[in-house]
Aliphatic sulfonates import ATP-binding protein SsuB 1
Amino acid sequence: MTQTHLEPALGVALTIRGLTRRYGEQTVLDHLDLDIRAGEFVAVVGRSGCGKSTLLRLLAGLDTPTSGGVRADGSPLDTGHFDTRLMFQDARLLPWKTVLANVGLGLKGDWQPRAHAALAEVGLSEHAGKWPSQLSGGQRQRVALARALIHEPQLLLLDEPLGALDALTRIEMQQLIERLWRRHGFTVLLVTHDVEEAVAIADRVLLVEQGRVGLDLAVPLARPRRRGDVHFALLQERLLSRVLQQPDAPLPEPLPPIAPAALRWAL
Ligand SMILES: Nc1ncnc2c1ncn2[C@@H]1O[C@H](COP(=O)(O)OP(=O)(O)OP(=O)(O)O)[C@@H](O)[C@H]1O
């Protein structure tokens, strides 16, 4: 089998200014301002209905802002100069196409070697000829990742992609996404309900509330990150209590150190 390599794509920098989205009387995003560096891994958290998916849909060009806009590397987002891929909780594979054909969906020419390369990157080389129904939920999400990778995206938008997976598969997928991000250098926005996931994987965590970025928290932990680590646990705890608080509440003081042994049960 001929295999090719996917070229590393440098991530795109985003400048979001005054981004507003109203649905009828409801203002979901309200003059949201945000700067994201090229190649940054950003997690977006917030209460259900706060507008996380709306933000991703606007960035993916699947929805249009009521006002305000987004510039990517200085150009308006919709100029189509760079590739953006969006991945959902559900892999959205076509059941009548093989795994390989799902990865190469919509591509023309000699796409098969690239589809094999993308499948190899997500550890599914042996499954190329199977049908989606023959895969586990985690494997289906890997296929969805491979389908995104084959386009060598500069911006990867992940809308709760691991939400339906069991805890261990979820951690494996987080590690895979982190490896792929480090190898390819794309910019990532990951929407998640899971504060631990955000701390495990992101450079920076944003809390969306009242239509804006209510908290913008750097995650200064070395990689690879260990969930049993005291600093990890403290940051997670601080973030969780802030997410659960009312808007405009300050970040709480750090908790006293916790012995790592006491945290092992959570792994
Ligand atoms: N197409 C639409 N028409 C009308 N209202 C919409 C539309 N899309 C989203 N909304 C509303 O906008 C608000 C934000 O929705 P969004 O899906 O962005 O929230 P979310 O933070 O991703 O929520 P969750 O965490 O539950 O997925 C919700 O109140 C939702 O009902």
Summary: The chain has one domain: 14-228.
